[in-house]
Every structure is written in structure tokens, then in C-alpha cells.
Amino acid sequence: MDPEAFLDLANQVIKLKMYPYFDVAHSLLCALAVREDLGSGAQAFSRKHPLACWLSTMLVIFAGGMVANGLLGEPILAPLKNTPQLLIGTVTWYIVFYTPFDVGYKVAKFLPVKIAASAMKEIYRAKKVYDGVSHAGKLYPNAYIIMIIIGTIKGNGAGFTKLVERLVRGAWTPTAMETMQPSFYTKASLVASVIFVLDKKTDLISAPHALVYFGIVIFFVYFKLSSILLGIHDPFVPFENLFCALFLGGIWDSLAKLLGKGQPKEETKDTKKTN
């Protein structure tokens, strides 16, 4: 592709309006995530506990804004003042859980629909990460770590509220902590936040901002579609394993185990001789 045409495409992507289509895709996939997390008893639960079902779905949809606002000392419920987005979330929740013969859920799960919605959600995620970094940068211009944290949470807020979201539905899962087992979306949002911070606050990245933003969008969309179509769920794992082995004690722990296995055998031989 011609460089000028590519840059023009990048500028068009960065100017995309999220409302209403990208909001619909985001809300639809969030409702699907709640239903799939409920498992086989999702339909029965939605009939018996509609309020808890709705609250947990809204918490997933608005998780990034709520958590980020809480950390920045802003009103936690402020994201809910966006009435059009709240209506979109409610309508998609109803479609996924309550349409006759479960038609809404089946259509949402239909592979072409899911692929299109997933691609749109990843574009939405890139926008959320960028907005989080920009907003934190205005409040704390020189606090790079705060910008990265807020950008990461904006990108995958649902992962950080999973414990509370399940608790709303009456399920207590204390091990469901994103800090203990971060998902790919948290890691990807973290990487994107770092890149946006470097782009905004340093001279290390010389490319135009639109190209940087477009590159993040391509990164998100590519790996999301790879997850759906090819089953590639976390491409960061090999790099994490290598890093842990080199810098977080992996090699030394392995050597300690090897040396430790040899010592008891020698001790048992010595004890047999003395006996």
C-alpha cells in the first residue's frame, strides 16, 4: 500500500466514532461473556435473578470507567450517566438473555457475527486505552506509571472486576484475581499503554501518532481473530517463560532442584553404611 494512502487510512481509523455501532459490539460481547461465565444454568439464573443478571452485565460493560474513576478519585458511577450507552447495554443484555427461543443468543454466537463484533470491540479497546492514557496524562502529566495503569484498566476493566461481578451473582471465587493470572487482554492493554505513553511523552517513537494508533488497532484485532479462528489465546506466554527463567529465578530454581535430588540419595547411602 502507498505510504500516503496508509497514513490516510490510519487517520480515518483514529477519527472513528464509537457510538453507536462500536458500543453495541462491546455491550454484546460483554453480555455474551456473562452468559458463558454462568454456564449451563445461565437461562435459569436469568429467569430467577434478573436484577443480579442485569447488574453484573452492566458492571462488565462499564468496568473500565468505574475502576479508573475510583483510582483517580472521580465518581465511580459517572460512566452510568451516559444514558444512550446504558440503553444500548440494557437492550443487548435483554437480547442475549431473554429473546424467544434464545434467538438473540444464537445469532450473537453465529461465527460471522461474532467475528465482526470482536473486531469492532478491539477497535473500541484501543480507543479506551488511548483515552485512559490521555486522561491520566492530563491529571498527572509526569506520572508515567499512573498513565499505564489507567490505560490498562480502561482496556480490560472487566478482568479487574470479575471477583465483584461474580459476587453480584452470588458466586464467591477469591482466586479470580487479574493480578494473579492476567489475561491476554490485560497484557495487551499494558503493552499498548506503554507505547501510547512513549508516543505522547517521549521522543523514542518518531512515527506519526496516527500510525502508532493504527498499529495498536491492528495488533488487537489480529490477535483477537487469531484467538477465535486459530486458537492462539496468549502469544505472550513464550516470552514470559523465557523472562521468568532468565530473570525471576527459573534457572536457579531448576538447578536447586537438580542438586537437591542428588543430596538425599547420598545421605541415604551414608546412613545405610553407618547402620
Automatic annotation (TrEMBL):
Q: According to the lineage, what is the superkingdom?
A: Eukaryota
Subcellular compartments: Endomembrane system
**What keywords is this UniProt entry annotated with?**
Ion channel, Ion transport, Membrane, Potassium, Potassium channel, Potassium transport, Transmembrane, Transmembrane helix, Transport
Membrane topology note: Multi-pass membrane protein
UniProt key word Ion transport:
yes
Predominantly, its location class is membrane
Q: Does the keyword Protein transport apply?
A: no
Write down the InterPro entries for this protein, in alphabetical order.
Answer: TRIC_channel
Record family assignment: Belongs to the TMEM38 family.
* Record GO cellular component, one term: endomembrane system
- Which protein are we looking at? Trimeric intracellular cation channel type 1B.1
Mention one GO molecular function. Answer: potassium channel activity
The residues that cross the membrane are: 51-72, 84-101, 210-230
